[in-house]
Amino acid sequence: MNKASRLFWPTLVTPKNAVVKPTEQLSRSQKLLTELGLVKAGSNGTYQIMPIAQRTIDKCIQLVQRNMQAAGGQKISLPVLTPAQLWKKTGRLDGDISEFYMVRDRSGKQFLMSPTHEEAVTAMLASAAPISYRQLPQRLYQIGPKFRDELKSRFGLMRAKEFLMKDMYSFDVSLDAARQTYATVTAAYERFFRQLELPFVRVEAASGIMGGSQSHEYHFISPVGEDTLLQCSNCSYAGNTEVFGNEADAPSTCPSCQSAQLSRVRGVEVAHTFLLGDKYSKPLGATFLNTSGKPEPLVMGCFGIGITRVIAAALEVLSTEQQLRWPKLLAPYDVCVIGPKAGSKEQASAERIEHELLNQLAQICGAEQLLHDERKELTIGKRLLDAQRLGHPLTIVVGAKATQLEAPKLELHTSGSEKLELEVAEVLQLVTQHEQHKQQLLQSQLEETNSEQQQEQKRFGHVH
Amino acid sequence: MNKASRLFWPTLVTPKNAVVKPTEQLSRSQKLLTELGLVKAGSNGTYQIMPIAQRTIDKCIQLVQRNMQAAGGQKISLPVLTPAQLWKKTGRLDGDISEFYMVRDRSGKQFLMSPTHEEAVTAMLASAAPISYRQLPQRLYQIGPKFRDELKSRFGLMRAKEFLMKDMYSFDVSLDAARQTYATVTAAYERFFRQLELPFVRVEAASGIMGGSQSHEYHFISPVGEDTLLQCSNCSYAGNTEVFGNEADAPSTCPSCQSAQLSRVRGVEVAHTFLLGDKYSKPLGATFLNTSGKPEPLVMGCFGIGITRVIAAALEVLSTEQQLRWPKLLAPYDVCVIGPKAGSKEQASAERIEHELLNQLAQICGAEQLLHDERKELTIGKRLLDAQRLGHPLTIVVGAKATQLEAPKLELHTSGSEKLELEVAEVLQLVTQHEQHKQQLLQSQLEETNSEQQQEQKRFGHVH
């Protein structure tokens, strides 16, 4: 079980003689993350993740992985260092390169600290023995740090210079097959965002520096978003106004159905997908052997989810000025338990109830998902404030009323600041419901996936 | 379940017109990893990890994490980019810096692609609100890529320029307390290496560029090791000959007990621990408030395990010229199942047995731990060869003898190339034993840990 007294949790206390730099533009949630000691600003747009926030990152990684594997993804790791020469071949060093971190090794050879890995993964395929059409599709993903020397890094983790990303690269025999992969992987994306229980929208996007024929972005819908999105309520069209150059040039009627029922909402971009075609496989010579044994360029897609960005954006959408709020599946802990203060007259009997409660909770949600705030030198009120600011889905207080001889009660606080006085059995039932809801969120995915995988296997003839 | 036909598994076929570069010095296991398509050489001492090897890396990460958390470790993430300025403060840029990758951002500010994070983590502590003696010890760890521009990278993953590392940093109130942390963390290291079931030794080491007062290395004992170690059979002394400048200067009698019973063995370094004292906390101003409320420098330790190096070294020690062999807890899959060839006369009936077997195996070891080699277009012999080269702990063949009416038999092959003809029930029993052994390896750790944690809690007065 996690004990609050042992946690490394460096809440921010600005030293008296500190020079506060106004350069860093912090959003609401980023301000809370920093003040609460979950994230610390490193140098210049880089961030240090502290233990509580690291738990959320690890949960997010696991959730993304489940969905990628369900979509047929296989995990790999590509080096951070990519030879600049590969990027010259695809022409991506011809334009503005000011956002790239470039580094030379001791022999003078130039590398990029990779902002993305299309070149590296395509060159890897090109250097492998030619793959047969029978082995396709292949969908390879990794999770690791990416680097972009942003002119203006801001909003903390939301737009950092070093960030954590899940990137998947797909390889198919034809544009039709690649479209099928695109549909399968984007379905997995939608499942992931539904599991976070946040309003999101998929919009048509500009493919920009990536190139390729088709591209979509996933946005959380929120007034704090940096992008302006168009949504048609007459048809299913949704698009980023960026596609039209700038926002002012965006049309006032739907580009798809010409209806005037086109509204504008703000969005925070959290994922981006591209149907790349042969833009990378051609110049880098990545081919497969077709049914006649002749080499043809692989048809590619790429699919990114900003892990740290998803978390930052979710917090930005959900949190209040004073309290963090997390997607249920990503909260650092499911339940926080606050016990009696040392020296209070009910301490001994309340501690017996607390001990028994912790054992029962560990059975329900696993000891790892519990935070026990046993800082008994602090008042219950002070600890409850911390718990509310951290935004645990459920906080249980074992206080004076727990020791009442008739009808002993615990306090249950939800992250929505709802406060209930309940008997132990009622508390355990609500915790059980919370865990069941989490399981349902995970499970719904698996059932869909199984039927999808069966369909895919039929399509590709891999029925066993 | 994992299906061999769908795996991305780019076995090496040297193209006819390839120019083979003799610059890369490959060890036995690295040659196998490359030929079998588990790892691909990227550019110049960097490596791409393919899906089968990635499974082992993920298992190794999980095992290291369990042990770090059992030793009171809390997981964090520090940026790859560390400002060079911090390294100037500790004097580590004054010497030879040719092994460091240095990079400038768009404003001209210089960063290291971190080879290690003492400066970064200490500066982080220094910038936090002063920590109280009550909150110590703190033990923070991370797992991520590290960078070292080796003059001669060689032996593949064993000495790569970009490698995966677990690094822990500890903070204590005094040298005595730091020694206690050192004992707790190194006990966790020894547990980890015991769990890998490989012969290892802890030796006194030179602290080198890290500085500090005490330092130990962990080595796998193997004739392929690059280091020469001294071991005394009269007392418990063990040391790296590096400590004495060079091997020739190493003594012929034990430096500890003066006995002549000093033997030399070769070792592969896989981990390094340092008692750092205040070498970093003093120049960077990382203090805690002592019992009188006065600031004092934190007393530090640091503890590294090379994740990719441990795996490479374990394979080097265990494998034969033709076959990989894995520590049980790190094998990519526990069991490989090979079914009948398509078109064989026993195909239909053998497939029914195979199907039932797979279901039962999934119950015993979990579907995720199974590799089903269902490439029915290949002969059983060809697939068995692949399985033996990959070194699965257990490979089960459902062949012609499985369909005998009287006494149907399966073939069970161990990674030691032992071949048994067994009934289904016997096969299931051996798989069950294998899983039980794995569980025991994991469990022995937990029991030790619980008693250690209780002792620590008593020492630090955190008994609840």
Automatic annotation (TrEMBL), chains A, B:
<dbReference type="InterPro" id="IPR033730">
    <property type="entry name" value="ProRS_core_prok"/>
</dbReference>
<dbReference type="Pfam" id="PF03129">
    <property type="entry name" value="HGTP_anticodon"/>
</dbReference>
<keyword id="KW-0436">Ligase</keyword>
<dbReference type="GO" id="GO:0006433">
    <property type="term" value="P:prolyl-tRNA aminoacylation"/>
</dbReference>
<feature type="region of interest" description="Disordered">
    <location>
        <begin position="441"/>
        <end position="464"/>
    </location>
</feature>
<dbReference type="Pfam" id="PF00587">
    <property type="entry name" value="tRNA-synt_2b"/>
</dbReference>
<dbReference type="InterPro" id="IPR036621">
    <property type="entry name" value="Anticodon-bd_dom_sf"/>
</dbReference>
<feature type="compositionally biased region" description="Basic and acidic residues">
    <location>
        <begin position="455"/>
        <end position="464"/>
    </location>
</feature>
<dbReference type="InterPro" id="IPR050062">
    <property type="entry name" value="Pro-tRNA_synthetase"/>
</dbReference>
<protein>
    <recommendedName>
        <fullName>Probable proline--tRNA ligase, mitochondrial</fullName>
        <ecNumber>6.1.1.15</ecNumber>
    </recommendedName>
</protein>
<dbReference type="InterPro" id="IPR045864">
    <property type="entry name" value="aa-tRNA-synth_II/BPL/LPL"/>
</dbReference>
<keyword id="KW-0030">Aminoacyl-tRNA synthetase</keyword>
<feature type="domain" description="Aminoacyl-transfer RNA synthetases class-II family profile">
    <location>
        <begin position="62"/>
        <end position="327"/>
    </location>
</feature>
<dbReference type="InterPro" id="IPR002314">
    <property type="entry name" value="aa-tRNA-synt_IIb"/>
</dbReference>
<keyword id="KW-0648">Protein biosynthesis</keyword>
<dbReference type="InterPro" id="IPR004154">
    <property type="entry name" value="Anticodon-bd"/>
</dbReference>
<dbReference type="GO" id="GO:0005739">
    <property type="term" value="C:mitochondrion"/>
</dbReference>
<feature type="compositionally biased region" description="Polar residues">
    <location>
        <begin position="441"/>
        <end position="454"/>
    </location>
</feature>
<dbReference type="GO" id="GO:0004827">
    <property type="term" value="F:proline-tRNA ligase activity"/>
</dbReference>
<dbReference type="InterPro" id="IPR006195">
    <property type="entry name" value="aa-tRNA-synth_II"/>
</dbReference>
<keyword id="KW-0547">Nucleotide-binding</keyword>
<dbReference type="InterPro" id="IPR002316">
    <property type="entry name" value="Pro-tRNA-ligase_IIa"/>
</dbReference>
<dbReference type="GO" id="GO:0005524">
    <property type="term" value="F:ATP binding"/>
</dbReference>
<keyword id="KW-0067">ATP-binding</keyword>
